[in-house]
Design brief:
Layout lengths: L6 E4 L3 H5 L6 E11 L6 E9 L3 E5 L6 E2 L6 E6 L4 E7 L4 E7 L8 E3 L5 E7 L2 E8 L18 E7 L2 E15 L9 E2 L2 H12 L1 E11 L21 E3 L4 E8 L7 E10 L7 E6 L2 H8 L7 E3 L5 E3 L11 E7 L22 E6 L8 E9 L7 E10 L4 E2 L8 E8 L20 E6 L6 E11 L13 E5 L2 E6 L38 E2 L2 E4 L8 E7 L12 E11 L1
Parallel strand pairs: 8-14
Antiparallel strand pairs: 1-4, 2-3, 2-13, 4-6, 5-26, 6-7, 7-8, 9-10, 10-11, 11-12, 12-13, 15-25, 16-17, 17-24, 18-23, 18-25, 19-22, 19-24, 20-21, 22-32, 27-35, 28-34, 29-33, 29-35, 30-31, 30-34
């Protein structure tokens, strides 16, 4: 059983509390078992120390090394005066709130004898049941925030599932009493909860209100990717692609990682393809020089396709998030007033990338939005990391695995001359992979969006993507979004039609204006035999019409765990 103590102690003068003085006093203790998923899976022990109805609660120090941003809380409970004071102290600041003990906004259903008085309420669609022993003169509960000052808590259940159960009570002589510590700035209960959670989150700012537009001078770095200056934004492809070398923190493997992107139009009115990706060393050469310097193949259509397939000595860019700007959100909001729609100020994309987070230290990250507008777009990008435990494991070795980019036809160097992914009209896309028998799991993280912006173009026609392994069909996926109408308030200058529809409402091949495309996963573990295998992507791409053509932006990353 994991030992966690919640200690309620005899009250001391406020001067002593502020100085965090420990004064020995006698106390009655109540020991509770706390359960996570029912009585058979106890996860922690809570001990409540109490005397004379006036108490102090201190969250004890955790066992082991705490994660960044952790701090224990201190709670002073004055039952006679019906108040709770909660404080938390960090090295640079302290906060506290004071509130009434009783929850006047809770409607209680009370029933049963005094020995097992049952209090039932509903909070946020959850049914909570507290069983109290009101025959004793003391008041003790490990959950004082709900009130219930009368009696000793015997059990607590949520939605019929046991959460806390009284195990025993004991009398302790000369118990040490920690004070409440420094009080600091007064905040509301919700503000303190927010502050404590935000302190635990590790945020790495990638781009801060950076402009992605057409017309900027291309940067150039002598010496390759290792020579890129840290924390400097570089512009390429006429300004439509920005790069930055950032230092990602090394964190315990129990963290979850998310990308957050904020985007506004800064003059561009159209829906555009965007991508956030890891810049591999080989691909940087094509960015820094010209796409034609990348490994290139010639399709059956006679066209050159640059840098799209990983091979020995070269990795395609590793795509983190594929996103699509809406029609002019932000810049055109004021002009489009009067349509009965409250236009949002920006688009916000948030996507988990934990399965890709096999990197730390210096990483070059790129962001691209294809456009030929002088104002373009403004983006802010963060990677936010959230702990799933308060401590750093003693064995803090990283999860053994890799994230290997296999292919990427999303032409982030479009404005520098990289071809579109229109090879599927005459060719399929094939890569070679090898998985060793000791592989624990292997999967292909696949992103696919179809483009061709006229009625019969592949943007508006569902097309089945087929994944073949060793030339045999293994998986199929038809990228298609039918919920685009949900994002109308992101598209102030979307085309509007006589029948009340907007062009942003139309269903599309794996995307909507103002959304991020969700990856799909294909299990490759059956091919973990140490042999080379081929993986082929085949799409029935539509034919061009009067100078217009369809194309597909597909990316595949092999995620391996050993």
């Amino acid at each position: 059983m994991k030992k966690t103590l919640l200690i309620l102690l005899l009250a001391v003068p406020l001067v002593a509390m502020a100085q965090n003085v420990k004064i020995p006093k006698d106390a009655n203790t109540f020991t509770y078992w706390q359960f996570e998923y029912g009585e058979k899976t106890d996860t922690s022990c809570i001990e409540v120390w109490l005397n004379d109805g006036v108490a102090s609660i201190e969250t004890p120090g955790i066992e082991g090394t705490p994660v960044q941003g952790y701090a224990p809380t201190h709670t002073y409970i004055d039952y006679p005066y019906d108040s709770i004071t909660v404080s938390v102290s960090y090295p640079d600041s302290s906060y506290y709130y004071r509130t009434a003990l009783s929850r006047s906004d809770i409607e209680w259903k009370v029933e049963g004898p005094a020995k097992e008085r049952k209090y039932t309420c509903s909070i946020n669609s959850n049914t909570l049941v507290f069983v109290m022993d009101e025959t004793v003169k003391q008041n003790a509960t490990p959950l004082p925030y709900y009130g219930l000052a009368k009696g000793v808590l015997r059990s607590f259940t949520r939605n019929g599932q046991l959460r806390i159960k009284l195990a025993k009570s004991t009398w302790i002589n000369n118990a040490p009493m920690p004070g409440i510590g420094a009080m600091g700035r007064r905040v509301t209960p919700r503000e303190l909860d927010r502050i404590m959670k935000e302190r635990l989150v590790v945020t790495t700012r990638i781009f801060d209100h950076e402009q992605i537009c057409w017309g900027k001078k291309n940067a150039h770095v002598d010496g390759g990717i290792r020579a890129i200056p840290a924390d400097t934004v570089l512009h390429y492809a006429g300004g439509t692609l920005i790069l930055k070398k950032v230092k990602l923190p090394r964190l315990p493997h129990h963290y979850q990682h998310f990308v957050e992107i904020h985007q506004q139009s800064n003059g561009d009115a159209y829906d555009r393809t965007g991508s956030l990706f890891i810049v591999t060393p080989g691909f940087f050469e094509g960015i820094n020089q010209h796409p034609d310097s990348l490994p290139t193949f010639v399709g059956r259509d006679g066209q050159r396709y640059q840098g799209m397939i990983s091979q020995t000595g070269y990795d395609a860019p590793l795509e983190l998030v594929r996103f699509f700007t809406p029609f002019g959100v932000g810049h055109f909001n004021e002009r489009m007033k009067g349509y009965g729609i409250d236009w949002r100020d920006e688009t916000y994309y948030r996507q988990e990338i934990t399965d890709l987070y096999h990197f730390n230290g210096d990483v070059v990250i790129g962001a691209w939005i294809g456009n030929y507008d002088g104002g373009g777009h403004i983006v802010t990008v963060d990677i936010k990391s959230y702990p799933n435990d308060y401590t750093i494991p003693e064995d803090n070795t990283e999860v053994s695995g890799l994230a290997l980019p296999c292919f990427n036809t999303c032409n982030v160097l479009e404005m520098a001359g990289q071809n579109y992914g229109k090879l599927f009209a005459t060719d399929s896309l094939t890569v070679i992979f090898k998985l060793y028998p000791e592989t624990k799991s292997a999967k292909l993280r696949y992103i696919s969006t179809g483009h061709g912006g006229w009625g019969e173009g592949d943007e508006f026609v569902p097309k089945q993507n087929t994944i073949l392994i060793d030339e045999k069909p293994a998986f199929t996926h038809t990228p298609w979004r039918q919920d685009c109408g949900c994002y109308r308030d992101l598209n102030p200058v979307s085309g509007n039609f006589w029948n009340g529809l907007s062009s942003s409402d139309f269903s599309r091949s794996g995307w909507c204006p103002g959304t991020a495309t969700q990856p799909v996963y294909f299990d490759l573990s059956p091919w973990a035999d140490g042999e080379e295998h081929t993986l082929t992507v085949a799409i029935p791409q539509g034919k061009p019409v009067e100078g217009m053509f369809s194309h597909w932006a597909v990316s595949g990353t092999l995620i391996i765990e050993y």
